[in-house]
Amino acid sequence: MADWTPCWLCARPLGARIEWHHPVPKSRGGRQMVPVHPICHRTIHATLSNAELARAYADAMALRSHPAIARFLAWIADKPADFHAPTLSAGRRRR
Predict the structure, then answer these.
(1) Can you tell me the distance from the alpha carbon of 8 to that of 21, in angstroms, rounded to the nearest whole number?
(2) How many CB atoms within 10 Å of residue 19?
(3) Sign of the C-alpha dihedral computed for residues 79, 84, 88 and 89 taken in this order
(4) Which residue range forms the structural domain that includes residue 20?
(5) CB 15, CB 63: distance < 8 Å
(6) Where are the alpha helices (H) located in the chain, listed in sequence order?
(7) Are residues 46 and 2 in contact, defined by beta-carbon separation less than 8 angstroms?
(8) Residue 92 falls within a domain, yes or no?
């Protein structure tokens, strides 16, 4: 994938590592896949369940409006494309 291709979640250019996210989870019948940074992908799944993603957050704009995702996006905005940091698990994040 070209360097200019944006991440579906954060809209930063993609780096060397790309993961593919199903906006509607496969377990809920989703087929479409979109390119995302690994850290963005992990944040999505650490923050929201598959049921929540399918019900209310299959659209990028809706997902970006979630308070925890919005905080993440503000934090990641100035990081390089291949930036990596540990992602809290869902249990630790929701406390």
Answers:
(1) 9
(2) 16
(3) positive
(4) 1-80
(5) no
(6) 38-47, 50-56, 60-65, 67-76, 90-93
(7) no
(8) no
- The number of domains in the chain is 1
Length of the chain: 95
Mean pLDDT split into 10-residue runs, the chain, 95 residues: 79 95 92 96 96 94 97 96 79 49
Q: Is the pTM of this model over 0.70?
A: yes
Residue 47: phi, psi to the nearest 5? -95, -40
Helix, strand or coil, per DSSP, at residue 18: coil
Separation of alpha carbons 93 and 75, rounded Å:
16
The reply to whether 40 falls in a domain is yes
Only one residue has tokens 């659209």, namely: 59
